[in-house]
Amino acid sequence: MSDLPYSPASERNREPILTVLRTLLPQRGRALEIASGTGQHAAHFAAALPSWSWQPTDLGDGYFEAIAGWAAQAGAANVLPARRLDVCDASWPSDGAAFDTPFDLIFCANLLHISPWACCAGLMRGAARHLASDGWLVTYGPYLEDELPTAPSNLAFDADLRARNPAWGIRRLADVDREADQAGLVRRELFALPANNLLLGFQRR
């Protein structure tokens, strides 16, 4: 049994997310992952997409050893060393050499509801700077849809998030789309995934 930091949610959702990624992505490309956390997604996706290079990032370096550990355990030699990245910074990553080659995929799971709202604008602006012309920004997590009733579990989750930090909370899909539009991106795909989560796909307008 691995003693690496472990996220049960990442273990549960990695295969449904990968199934959708396979429908969107070409055979090869360059991926940037925002808020990689433990690194389980990076390891799983990179191992399943061996012709892709996978650049993990996180706000701090606390999980960098875990990211490398999960990649090694999966045999994913295409996972690059993690970099520190704050989505609100004007330059990505937050230190060291700037990314100078566009990415075919920017992937971000479960960030927007556990970060201040400014991070949504930061994510969209950064993606607009760093996406290839036909690249995808893919986000995953719970969202509130104005035209659909919200699952009781998501309402309870939203209340819990806001009690823990008033700046957190499940975001309205319309508000996320508006931030994307202001950055020059448009949502082209929406996939409903298990446990009342959505996978969204944005591209340049």
Short note summarizing the structure:
This protein has 205 residues and is α/β, with parallel strands linked by helices. It has a single domain, classed as Rossmann fold.
Helix and strand topology:
Blueprint: H1 8-24, E1 29-34, H2 40-48, E2 52-58, H3 64-74, E3 83-84, E4 103-109, H4 118-130, E5 131-141, E6 143-144, H5 152-164, E7 171-172, H6 173-182, E8 185-193, E9 197-204
Parallel strand pairs: 1-2, 1-4, 2-3, 4-5, 6-7
Antiparallel strand pairs: 5-9, 8-9
Helix pairs in contact: 1-2, 2-3, 4-6
CATH superfamily: Vaccinia Virus protein VP39
From the alpha-carbon coordinates, what is the Rg to the nearest angstrom? Answer: 16 Å
* Low-pLDDT runs: none
Strand order of the largest sheet: 3-2-1-4-5-9-8
What global shape is seen?
globular
Give the CATH class.
Answer: Alpha Beta
Terminus-to-terminus distance: 46 Å
Largest sheet: 7 strands, mixed
**Average residue-wise pLDDT:** 97
- If classified by CATH, what would the architecture be? 3-Layer(aba) Sandwich
Order of helices and strands: HEHEHEEHEEHEHEE
Number of spatially distinct domains: 1
Q: What structural category arises from helix and sheet content? A: alpha/beta
